[in-house]
Amino acid sequence: MRSTVADVMTTEVASVGEDAGYKEIVSTLLERGVSALPVLDGENRVVGVVSEEDLLHKVEFENDTSARAYWPPMRARLRARLSGAGALAERADEKAAGRTAAHLMSTPAVTVAPAALVIEAARLMERRGVKRLPVVDGTGALVGVVSRRDLLRVFSRSDSDIAAAVEDQVAEVSRWDRGEINAVVEDGVVTLSGPVRRRSVAHALAGAVCGVEGVVAVTNNLDWEIDDVAPYPQMGV
What we know:
The protein is α/β, with parallel strands linked by helices. 43% of the residues lie in helices and 21% in strands. Residues 9-65, 105-162 form the CBS domain.
């Protein structure tokens, strides 16, 4: 059975309200040893996330009076606006002037549901370029946080546990393919060997085993009698 976000998330979550001040946010980040905090409204719903990056804009623009006094020519402003750079710079400047979480946070927050699979959360983190995801229920209320480290817990599964799960996959295939398949697990790497009737079965089994939680890689040494895998069509044929 695949692990969900609820299985690996942290439920004791550090967060701040929308009216939390800059120094309160910094103190909470340092005390809890995290790089970002969910920002909550009065009903415990996640309205944004404030990160170290958001806070560093104030350091970046601190005492930078020359940058604030300079106003580029109209042509340069139009070019920057069209490229999107102007909007990003304007937002960074706004955050530098911000005093509360409501002004400093990034919004909307990238969140995930407790029932989402761990692999789904990992893909979301990769796609959105974040290291932590607030976990919210159906109303948007905060119930936990899942980090990259939390997602890696599935790979701490023992070889014996992985082998038992792999054997279930092998038994299902052997039941109707009549193959004598062997599976060896070492450091999360599964090696499959033995005969099967069809090449498609060998491919399907390797794919199923690769999806077993905790499997790092699959070495497919299965032999087949019938090559029923259609070759890729050649151009012009």
